[in-house]
């Protein structure tokens, strides 16, 4: 694991995550994705990168908030490790770093959403100690009703 580095991605470099993000988000047009990322980094959002030397191979978004039911927390979002690097223990390595980082920031908990069809992620998150607490629901307010 010595060749792997984990660090926050600078706001000025946030669009560098787009090639990885496109692996799980093919429906959002690239221009809109770029605009959204630039807006997100001005909110309570931070992106953490997992690097193989200088190559970005994994990402994890963090949304910070304080919730009445858990206190100061981070929502773990769009976690992804490049397919070529899966099944090498990097997910556990990545999350261990993230938990330490969040504790240092004063977070009392984490939460996340995972797509119902992504069963491999469910097993991983259960093994990380996550439990199902509720359902995440979405309503599109655009006139065309499309989700992108």
Task: Explain this structure.
By secondary structure, this protein is of the alpha+beta class. The protein has helices at residues 18-21, 30-40, 90-104, 119-127; strands spanning 4-8, 45-52, 55-67, 71-81, 109-112. The chain has a single domain (4-127), classed as Aminopeptidase (3-Layer(aba) Sandwich). The chain has a 5-stranded mixed beta sheet, with helices on one face. The longest helix has 15 residues, at 90-104. The chain is globular and about 50 Å long.
Give the strand order of the largest sheet, numbering strands 1, 2, ... along the chain. 1-2-3-4-5
Domain tally: 1
Largest sheet: 5 strands, mixed
- The CATH superfamily name is Gcn5-related N-acetyltransferase (GNAT)
What name does the CATH topology carry? Aminopeptidase
Order of helices and strands: EHHEEEHEH
Secondary-structure content class: alpha+beta
The N- to C-terminal Cα distance equals: 36 Å
In one word, what is the shape? globular
Percent helix range: 25-40%
Tally of contiguous helical segments: 4
Counting DSSP E segments of at least 2 residues, the number of strands comes to: 5
Rg from alpha-carbon coordinates: 16 Å
Q: Please tell me the overall pLDDT.
A: 95
| Strand content bin | 25-35%
In the CATH classification, which architecture applies? 3-Layer(aba) Sandwich
Which CATH C-level class is it? Alpha Beta
Instruction: Catalogue the unreliable spans.
Output: none
Give a brief description:
By secondary structure, this protein is α+β, with helices and mostly antiparallel strands. It contains four helices and five strands; from the N terminus they run E-H-H-E-E-E-H-E-H. The chain is about 25% helix and about 30% strand.
């Amino acid at each position: 694991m010595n060749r792997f580095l984990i660090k926050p991605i600078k706001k000025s470099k946030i669009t560098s995550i787009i090639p990885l993000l496109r692996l799980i988000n093919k429906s959002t047009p690239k221009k809109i994705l770029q605009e959204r990322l630039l807006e997100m980094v001005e909110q309570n959002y931070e992106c953490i990168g997992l690097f193989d030397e200088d190559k970005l191979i994994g990402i994890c978004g963090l949304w910070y908030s304080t919730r009445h039911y858990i206190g100061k927390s981070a929502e773990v979002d769009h976690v992804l490790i490049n397919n070529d690097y899966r099944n090498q223990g990097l997910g556990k390595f990545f999350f261990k770093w993230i938990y330490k980082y969040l504790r240092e920031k004063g977070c009392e908990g984490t939460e996340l959403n995972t797509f119902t069809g992504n069963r491999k992620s469910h097993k991983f998150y259960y093994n990380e100690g996550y439990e199902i607490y509720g359902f995440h629901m979405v309503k599109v307010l655009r006139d065309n009703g499309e989700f992108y």
